[in-house]
Amino acid sequence: MYQILKTRSESTFRKYSNNENKPAVLSCSRSVWRFPLIVNLEFSTEFRVHKEANEFLNYLAVTVNNDLTRKKYIVDASLSVCIWLNFIYYFDNTEYSQRSEWNVSSSVLMRFRVYLQSIGNLSDSRVEEYVMWAHRFYWYLDHIRFEGGSGIIGVNKPEKKQMYPIYVHPGKGTWPFLIPNTPSILKEAKPAKTFWDDWCFAIETAAGSNNPIGTRDALMMELIQTFSIRREELITMEIDAFSERAPSSSEITEMQIQLSKSKNDRRKGTVGRIVNGPKEVYIRVQKFIKTSRKLFIKSGVKDRAVFLSKRSGKRFIGTSLSAELQRKYGVSPQDGRKVSATQLFINYLDQGLQEKTAMLLVAEHLGHSKKTEGKTLQASYLQAMVIRDIRSSKNIKEQLDVISNENMELQIELKRHKAEILSLESQLSQFKK
Questions:
Q1: CA distances (Å), origin 95, targets 91, 353, 364, 397, 431
Q2: Is 431 left (phi over 0), alpha (psi -120 to 50) or beta?
Q3: What is the DSSP code (8-state) at residue 367?
Q4: Per-position DSSP letters for 231-261, written without gaps between them
C-alpha cells in the first residue's frame, strides 16, 4: 500500500527536483519538520516512489509563500493523495479494465467521496478537503506540469467537442475550478443539499400521513419526479390537464400532460410543453381531483389549479411551495428534478446509450434550453454512474455468494460420495476375505 515516509526535506527535494537552491519548505514556523515522501514499498525499487505525486508536493513547496500555509498544504495534500492512490488500487470494489490512477473519471472520484464518508470518523469538511486535493493533483498534472493539458481534467465544452474524464466547473483563484455539486447517496451522510434518499423519504412520509394535505404533498412530489416538471409548471397546472380518461389496457403505461407555458418559451400565443409520465400517477391525480381536492376549496374562491393552498384556497406561489416542502420534509422542488434526471440517466445507460445521447434525451425530457451549460445534468449523470457502479458491485457480490454456497454444497456432496466409496471398499474387502 502507499504510505508517507518522513524524509529530510532538503535531500528529498534535491533528489526529485531540478531546482538546486535550498527549498523554502525548510522554514516552516521555525519548527523541525521532515518533508513527506509518497511511496509504495510493495513495488520494486524502481517504482516505489510515486514520481508525479511527489513532484506535486515539491510544486507546493516552492509556490506557497506563507510558512504555516505551506506546511498545512503539503501535509494535507500528501495525506489526501496517498489515501486516493490506496483507494484506487486497494479499496475501490468496482471492476476495472485497467486499474490505474491515470484511468479515472469523475464517477471514480464520487465513489472516493462515498468511501471516505463510509469510514465514519471523518467530518464532512474533511471529506470534501480530501476530494478537493485529489482534483488539485490532477489539475497540476494536466494544466501546470504539462503545458496545454493532456485531457484528464477540465471544463466540458460539447460545442467544441472538448470532453474530460474528470469534469469541473470554471472558477477563479489559484486553482481555477469548482467541483460539481454531487451530494452523497449514503443515508447516513448529511450533504449540504438533499438529493436522492431524502426526496424518496419525503414522499414516503407525506403518503404515510393518511390525511388530505399529506396526499396532496406526496402527489406534488411524485409529479415533479416522474414527469420531470418544474415548480412553476406544477403550480400553474390546471385540472383540465387530467381530463383525458386513462386507457384500461395494461400495454399503455404512460400518459401525457399538457403543461402551461414554459419559462423558456417567451413567444406570444405559445403553449407549454407536453410531458410523459407513469399512468398510475396520472390516475392518482385524477382521483385526488375528484375527492381530496374539494377539501381545499374556499367559498367565493375560484381557482382551477390542481393543487391548492389549505390556507387561501388558491394555487401556490413559487416561494410558498418551496418553503412548505422545505419546512415539512426538508426538500425542495429542484431536488425532485435532480432525482428524475438521475433515474432517467440510469435507465438510458442500462439500455446501452452513450453519454452524449443520454444527455440529449434527458435534457429534452426535462425541458432544458439548448443554451444551458448542463451543470445540473452533469451532476445527475455522475450520480447515476455511481449508483450503477454500486449496484453492479452488489450484483457481483451476490453472484459470488451464490457460487460460494454452491461450492460448499458440492464439497458436502463430495465428502458424502467419498464416505460411500470408503464404505463400499470396506464391504468389498470383507467379501474377498
A1: 11, 20, 32, 12, 58
A2: alpha
A3: T
A4: HHHHHT-BGGGG-SPPP--TT--EEEEE-S-
| Amino acid letter for position 322 | S
Q: Are 49 and 4 in contact (CB under 8 A)?
A: no
SS3 47: helix
DSSP, residue by residue, 87-136: IIIII--S--SS--TTS--HHHHHHHHHHHHHHSSS-HHHHHHHHHHHHH
Cell 457460487 identifies what position?
Answer: 403
Q: Residue 3 belongs to what H/E stretch? A: strand 2-7
Model-level pTM?
Answer: 0.55
Please tell me the distance from the alpha carbon of residue 187 to that of residue 202, in angstroms, as a whole number: 13
DSSP 8-state symbol, 143: I
> What are the E-state strand segments in 227-380?
254-258, 274-278
Q: How far is CA 87 from CA 79, 80, 96, 351, in A?
A: 12, 11, 13, 29
Residue owning grid cell 414527469: 227
| Contact (Cβ atoms closer than 8 angstroms) between residue 241 and residue 202 | no
Report the half-sphere exposure of 253 (CA within 13 A, side-chain side). 2
Domains of the chain in sequence order: 2-178 (no CATH), 196-380 (1.10.443.10)
CB-CB contact of 58 with 139 (8 Å): no
Query: pLDDT digits over 37-82, tens only?
Result: 898 888 888 888 898 898 898 888 888 877 778 888 888 999 999 9
Distance CA 168, CA 293 (A): 45
Grid cell locating 218: 406526496
Ranges 23-37, 104-118, 274-288, 359-373, most confident? 274-288
List of residues 6+ apart from 417 with CB closer than 8 A = none
According to DSSP, the β-strands at 153-154 and 166-167 are parallel
357: which 3 cell numbers?
445521447
Question: Are the CB atoms for 303 and 315 separated by under 8 Å?
Answer: yes
